[in-house]
Amino acid sequence: MSRRFLFVLGSARAEGNTELLARRAAEQLPDDVGQRWIDLSGQPLPDFEDLRHDSDHVRPPSDTPLGLLLDATLEATDIVIASPVYWYSVSAQTKRYLDHWSGWLRIPGLDFKARMAGRTLWGVAALAHEELSVADPYAGTLRYSAAYMGMRFGGVLLGNGSKPGDVLNDTGALTRAKTFFAQDAPLARFPYETADAA
Ligand SMILES: Cc1cc2nc3c(=O)[nH]c(=O)nc-3n(C[C@H](O)[C@H](O)[C@H](O)COP(=O)(O)O)c2cc1C
């Protein structure tokens, strides 16, 4: 299967550092790799309503933002969460998109989990803090979500910046962007699955 990357932009502003960094990384993808970019602020998703234990979730029509996101997610071999670090995790827009995955898991006949298994989740994020380790909760959110879904995880490309454009001064991030998507993306595992027996 030729690869198709879906970039899900989750910033609350246009053309911010996260998108700039994601575009730098995407420039390195070979020409035969598809790219689709969806800005969640242009496709506002409804609040997630938890019907899992009351009734089946129904497939959202393709002409709605939610249906568009579902179709785009199913079409992608690689999903790139391009969200800034907000409160040490993903943005609310991004979290809402991920919450809807829980509904999609319950759409009869969709087989969302089985279809997502083996695909790859990646993260790209800008943050104002200079010590990148404060983004560990963000990376954990994506890694564990990938593990739950049986997906591969390519890690998170982090760049420093506060105001738009700052990340272009983070030479380390720009260097990492050049090879980010060429990295191995092993199947994600929860820590308890890989911990050595004591
Ligand atoms: C609501 C909000 C929460 C934020 N939380 C964090 C944070 O927890 N850690 C941090 O280092 N920066 C934080 N920031 C700063 C942003 O991550 C930073 O400005 C980043 O460059 C924004 O990305 P963008 O330009 O792609 O929108 C926060 C900014 C906002 C607006």
UniProtKB/TrEMBL annotation:
Any Pfam family: FMN_red
SUPFAM superfamilies: Flavoproteins
Keywords (A to Z) from UniProt: Flavoprotein, FMN
Location of the NADPH-dependent FMN reductase-like domain: 5-117
Keyword Flavoprotein: yes
InterPro entries for the chain: Flavoprotein-like_sf, FMN_Rdtase-like_dom, ISF_SsuE-like
Protein name: Flavodoxin family protein
